[in-house]
From TrEMBL:
It holds the Pfam family Tyrosinase. NCBIfam families: PEP_CTERM. GO terms for molecular function: metal ion binding; oxidoreductase activity. Keywords: Copper, Metal-binding. Residues 307-318 form the Tyrosinase copper-binding domain. Belongs to the tyrosinase family. The keyword Transmembrane does not apply. This is Tyrosinase family protein.
Amino acid sequence: MKLLQILVKSLISSVIIVDVITLPAFAHNGMDHEHHEHQHTAKPQTRLAVRKDVTDLSSAEKKDLVHAIKTLKTTIPAGSQLSIYDQFIAIHLGATRLIHNHHGHSHSSVKELAHENAAFLPWHRQYIRRFEQALQTVNPKVSLPYWDSTNPKALDVIFKDDFLSPNGRGVTINIPGRGSFTGGPVQSGPFSSANGWVLKPELNFDPVTEQSLGTSLVRFLQAPPANDYPLPQRDIDRVQALDDYSLYRAALEGFISVDEQGNITRGGFTHNYIHGLVGGVQIDLTTNPVSFKGLGTMSNIPSSPYDPVFWLHHANVDRLWAEWQANGHEGIDFYPADGQPYGHNLDDLMWPWDGGMSTPEATALADLLSLLPDVDAQDLVRPRDVLDYTKLGYIYDRHQMKEVPEPTSTFALCSLTALAAISLRKRKQQQIKYRQL
């Protein structure tokens, strides 16, 4: 069983994400982008949106969020085939399912632009902020809440008829050694098909067979083996204690973890696992390599933003990164300047906010090309531009901060110097362990 848990923790390795549309309210990321290299001047922010723990939302705040999400789903911009919400899905698909050529660079045909590499965190930070800005065009008071996956109360708040709808029903699966479990299409609440939450089949398909997965939001919440909840705080704490960005990103995304002795191991109770917890996953141990099959919308990563819980989950991932940054990992020293696939280095432009630098190649998914929204040619975003999230116009309600000495004495200054030296040594040791996996 422990093997199953380790395997499921590393199940989702092809996530997709999308960004925005050419609408004035969120055509830019809260910053002025000029054609001068690396010059990005922050616009004055009149008010920072505060992202709250979902369990702290009032009834009115939950209703406002649901209304804003559903309004985006039914609003089709002039000249588009897709609603605003569906455009976010299309970009997410484009970031993971299309091959991109990068003009003027030796790095070509990069398929995964939003996952499995360094830009997983900055790309999603930009992506969910664009979505939040879209919500605020409906209601300026709305901000994205986050789902703290260590909070035991969260499931009972999120998966209810008065908020993001409950688990699916109507399909029973038999899991050897574990019994029968029920899930399927969501049949009640605001995100059921009966209440207007209809997925576009051309944007909701199996990433392997490319067959449509239908028009309903599907959940197999807590079906084994992805059934452990809440996530252990000690596991999250060990991830947050990593000092090297490359290791930290891989751990937070869910491909590695840190054991009690500080050793790097495979799999983890983080981002990937939560996708499987909500959507459900089947594992076949008889194949080589071991095969994973997503059962529901959240575990079908390319179109996983069709489940509205996606945004709460990724707000939490971003919150953890923001907390890690605030605890001694701020700025460009804690992001790779080079050595990554194009689109993932510090000063690479990230698709689709790259002024046309990345051109999607026509593939078997050629029909998707016609659905991708246009992005302003001056809407340019690099990982560097989003390292300071407060410049994007939001903050979190609280962070877990480490205790460090105040730099007001010789002892304190020496202590901070020692902490920096220890941090550097730890990063080097962790990198060596990771390479040995």
